[in-house]
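Dear colleague,

Thank you for sharing your sequence with our group. We've completed the structure prediction you requested, and as agreed, I am returning the results in plain text so they can be pasted directly into your records. Please verify that the sequence below matches your submission; if there's any discrepancy, let me know and we will rerun it promptly.
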Amino acid sequence: MDSGRLFYFCLMDSILLFDDPAIRGSLLPFTFTRPVADLRVGILKISEKWEKLTGTSVSFLSQDYLQKKFPRKSGNALAINGAWLPDSKSLELLKSLTANQAVFFGKILIATYIGETEKNLSAVRDKEIIQMSSEPRLLLKTWNIFQFNGAEIRKDFDLITQGRKSAEINDPYTKLYSPENIFIEEGAVIRAAVLNADGGPIYIGKNTEIQEGTLVRGPFALCESSTLNMGAKIKGDTTVGPHCKIGGEVSNSVIFGFSNKGHEGFLGNSVIGEWCNMGADTNTSNLKNNYSQVKLWDYTVGNYANTGLQFCGLMLGDHSKCGINTMFNTGTVVGIGSNVFGPGFPRKFIPSFAWGGEEGFSTFLFPKFLETAKAVVARRGLELNAEDQEILRTIFEMSKNYRIWETSF
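Please find the predicted structure tokens below.
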């Protein structure tokens, strides 16, 4: 019996991954549509990491408008900060935790037990406080998603592949470097590609396709049913989530899932949400001409904040799209459901449900946005259900203050 499964039997309660209000706002626009623990970093989402490590399913304590889609299970639970990226050492700390204790790192609540009828974690102030002796890896900012991605791919690779045997590559024209660091799930099709795992592991998920002429460097993850188009150049520390189609050049970026960047163009040090589409020859700048640190829009302060990074590209929220030849400046943030197009560089902060480009923006009216979103989801044989529609409608209302123009599309 492995340590994760042992932890499950010791716990006797479910795991509840909670949104820390002090952290969630700094992870917008991605946490508009999901709890913090539903973010993908590495191969897996944070919630999936906990499930793999502990051998039990998890639930969420998030914003009210998200709770129907991401429900909380009934019963007592071990509440864990959803921004915590766990490893095997995390389990050792939690095994000894009792109901009257709470684990903190500084002022950040890391874990505590919560009763079935408790709707928040306010009772933590009455518990014995245990301070962590070593700093946990916490997802505190949007750029941490790509910043931590290489290390998380390595951890997830070991977690997923331990004790398993990779499928074989039978294509004689595909070249592997460090094949012991490459794991291929059943159903993957690879033709005339180069997979170089000298610098880190490469994970190829089920029913994926890597087309002719593709160059890949690890650490890299290609999740289930995704495709790398002909001639794609994928550099290390990159994750392509499930059901994506990716081409061109991609470096140190995370694409959550169900999104397309099918053509030429550069994407670097960026995070792309779900149901996004990037038009042909879309390019992102990830380095300023003067090599200074990049500032990025911070929803919590309503202004730009210094990331401390020299390399930082694009943060593109769910259901947002851009037209052909779109040029995104260094450190651009685009909200949910926006449509960006036209010549030149658009502004560096584009709010949710915006329509336009360098020449100005109008509001993408919700009925018209919804019509497009339904069509996009239907192309994958899926349906934009009532829960998703209500979440998006709530975000449209929540984000009105960011749209200061008067015209609408």
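Summary note from our side: DSSP finds eight helices and 35 strands in the chain.

Kind regards,
the structure core
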